[in-house]
Each structure stands twice: as C-alpha cells, then as structure tokens.
From TrEMBL:
This is Glycoside hydrolase family 5 domain-containing protein. It comes from Mortierella alpina (Oleaginous fungus). It comes from the Eukaryota. GO terms for molecular function: steryl-beta-glucosidase activity. Residues 64-74 have a biased composition (Polar residues).
Length: 448
C-alpha cells in the first residue's frame, strides 16, 4: 500500500535554503553554500490595495465615548473580518453617532442592498472619501485563514512572497488636518507632529509574517503604489497627500483628472486597464512630479514642517556628510559619484530652516514616505530582539523577511516630458478621454 504522509507535519520539503539567509553576488541570488537560488513566488496580494473597514483613531473615540464597535463579522464577509476584540487601544471601529434607531435603519438598509456595515467596497462611493478613518487590518486575509493560504502556497512550490504594504495602510491618518494647519500657521510658527502610524496594522503584519515563517516562506516587503493612490485610480499613497497638494479629490471625475471605480457612474462599463491611462492623467502625474521633483518644478509649493521631515532631513544630511568624508579619504574617491545623492537639492535642516517652519512638498512627501517604512522596519527589528531573547524565531535572522523594495512601479509624472501639449504616443496608453498635460491643467482650473 502506498504510504500517504501526514499533511500536517511535512513542511519545508523542497526548501534547501529554508533556514539560511540569501545574499546577492555577481548578479545572482545565492545561499551560504554559494548555490544560485531561483526564487519562485507570488504577490500577497491584490487584496491589500484598499482598506477593509472604517475605523476612528483613538483620540476620536475618546472624544465620542458613546461610540460602539460595529465591525463586520467573519460569517458576514467570508471570513475577512476585523479583530474579534470589541475595542482596540489604538483603533476603534466607526459607527454612526446618531440614535440607535438610526443605526438600526442604516444596518437594515445595508443588508437590503447586500452590504456589510462599515466594510469599504472597491466599487461604491459610500465612505470612499473618509480616508483618514480606515483600517487595513486583515488585508489580504485574516490570521485565522493565514495557515491555510501559506500552507497551500508552500505545497504548490512557492518559495518567496512579495508582501504588498501600501503607505496608506501605515499612515492613513496623516500628520494633522491640513485645513486646521493652514489657519494656524497664519498666526504661529508651528511644527506638525511626527507620523501617526497604525500600530494595529503593523501588529497584524508581524503576526502574518510569523505564520509565513512556519512554512519557511521568504518574504520581501513591497511599498506598493499604482497610479499614486486609490483616489486617483490606483492604490498606495494616503488620501491626505492629495489634500496637501491642494487637490480636491471629489472633482477628479468631472475634470478628467482620473478614472476611479468608486465614483464611476456606470460601474458595469468600467474601462479595462484604465490604470495605465490614469498614470498620465493630471492627478497622478502631478503627485509623482511633486514627489520626485517638487523642489525644482514647484519651488513655492511649501507646507508646514513636521518633526518627521525634520528628523529625516537631519539624518539624510548626516549620511551625506559621512559619504563625502568617506570618498575624500579614498584615493580618487572624490571624483566618484555618490550613491546617495538626490537629483534635487536638499534643504539644510539648520536653525534658519527650522525657524522658517516651511519645507517643499517634495521633501515632506518623501520624508513621511521613507520614515513610515523605516518605522515598520524598526518594529520588525524590535520584534526580533524580543523573539531572540525568548529563544523564538526572529523574522530577519531566519530569512523570513528578506528585505524591502523601494517603490512599486514609480511613474515619472511630467518629468522628462518633451512637450506638455502632446501625449507620448509610444509611452502613454490612451484609453477613453485622454487630455494632454496642458489640457488636463486647464480642465483642473475649471476651463473647457
């Protein structure tokens, strides 16, 4: 009789490098035995590109103690439900602040049209613009389902997982409300607080990586971005970044600045592959231009300095100084290009700069983006330190976390565009209404 192995015990077969860290050498990925490793894996997953449910930050909940937790249940949403705890120390699910009768009416209305209350859908405009009060916990799936998915992937031969982590999942709340800041800065020289991160989501992500470690799966974390943001027809960047740039997200459809599924009038006629076209439309193209070269092309686009950006610039300048000193100490090294030089000038984080209290939007966006993922890396490092002290498996030391990408599919925006009065025939995908960059700017200003 053929022996059938116990499926609950046989993991790791086919993983010759299961407990080893991999390195890059001569253009190849190799293990400690100098064997070339061909990674085989998948994205995990497209389901991470949008939040799962509405949530209020702890400070909002403290101001409204009568709010109750009304998160969808696992049975209601195919197992993809938020944490089973009724409240969280940092994130509390949102519910209507109206009377119980109104709550019940909303609940009945949601059920009548097939909705799960407080779940955010990719094709509905309802709650779409409540971008600060969301949660990505249990995206792409719950921890209860993680064993099933990871075991299945391991048995299918997957070795490597690209874990998609949108910046929005980490810092959707934003540093502060920019409408309030714009008024305050008229009277006070203020500095915005540092980044406000969703620690519950990071806790969930750490737990998810621990489950992946059980099946000897190697993971690298991908700061996933498509067409800038889900508010511009893609995913990744928080909604407050567009508000920071002065873009009214509710007017993108009317001005042909983006095609977004949530706000599309005819959901059944949503164009295929429109994200490629969204990259060249005004909303996404403007944000990418500001992100990569705002200091050059929008030097007057300044915003209040935040402590996150200030600390980021100080560290960056320290690195630049160290890099210059190193190259000066190497024979002929001063003529070598610096590996860390930015394409645009970096403002000095000195006393005058702090007193001015303003920074170009490029450095604000870059600083918060980088520091958000630096915070995630630190959380992983701190987790590993505790794990090692307890004799448990550390995510980095075991090779479960292989590293970070820098950014998924960055777009140049308007950079290096030879003529903003024309579309690039060979580079741009033209689907539906495709205004030229200049036409897009005219439409955004309300001109026909």
């Amino acid at each position: 009789m053929t022996h059938i192995p116990d499926p609950t015990t046989a993991f790791g077969h086919g993983f010759a490098w299961d407990s080893s860290r991999l390195i890059a050498k001569d253009g190849w990925i190799v293990d400690p035995q100098n064997r070339v490793v061909i990674l085989h894996g998948i994205n995990v997953s497209g389901g991470t590109k949008m939040p799962f449910y509405r949530a209020f930050a702890a400070e909002d909940a403290a101001a409204n103690p009568s709010q109750s937790s009304k998160t969808p249940t696992a049975q209601a949403f195919y197992g993809a439900a938020p944490s089973t705890t009724e409240t969280s120390e940092r994130v509390i699910s949102a519910s209507s602040s109206s009377s119980k009768a109104a709550d019940d009416e909303t609940l009945m209305e949601s059920r009548s049209i097939g909705e799960v209350p407080n779940v955010i859908y990719s094709y509905k405009e309802k709650h779409f613009y409540e971008h600060r009060h969301v949660s990505f916990v249990n995206r792409p799936f719950t921890l209860q389902e993680a064993d099933m998915h990871f075991e299945r992937l391991a048995r299918w031969g997957s070795q490597c997982l690209r874990i998609l982590v949108p910046w929005e999942a980490l810092e959707h709340t934003g540093p502060l409300d920019f409408g309030v800041i714009s008024l305050k800065r008229l009277f006070l020289r203020i500095t915005l607080p540092s980044g406000i991160y969703d620690e519950d989501y990071i806790d969930y992500l750490l737990s998810l990586l621990q489950v992946a470690a059980k099946y000897k799966l190697k993971c690298f974390l991908d700061p996933h971005v498509d067409c800038w943001s889900r508010f511009t027809g893609g995913c990744g960047m928080p909604g407050w970044t567009l508000e920071l740039a002065g873009i009214d997200m509710t007017k993108l459809d009317q001005t042909a600045a983006a095609v977004v599924h949530n706000t599309q009038t005819d959901k059944d006629d949503f164009p295929k592959m429109i994200w490629c076209t969204n990259n060249i439309k005004l909303a996404a193209a403007t944000m990418y231009t500001l992100f990569f070269a705002g200091q050059v092309f929008a030097p007057r686009a300044t915003v209040p300095l935040s402590t996150t950006v200030l600390n980021h610039l100080r560290r960056l300048h320290s690195t630049v100084v160290s890099d210059e000193a190193y190259r000066r100490g190497v024979d002929g090294g001063i003529r070598a290009p610096s590996p860390i030089q930015n394409l645009t000038s970096i403002p000095r984080a000195d006393h005058e700069f702090v007193q001015r209290g303003q920074v170009n939007i490029q450095h604000f966006l870059q600083g918060h983006y980088i520091e958000a993922f630096a915070h995630l890396a630190k959380r992983i490092h701190d987790h590993d330190a505790k794990a090692l002290s307890k004799g448990e498996v550390a995510l980095i030391a075991s090779g479960t976390v292989m590293g970070f990408e820098t950014m998924n599919e960055p777009s140049p925006g308007y950079l290096n565009h030879p003529d903003l009065n024309k579309l690039l025939e060979l580079a741009d995908l033209h689907i539906g209404t495709c205004p030229t960059p200049v036409q897009g700017m005219e439409l955004a200003q309300g001109r026909q």
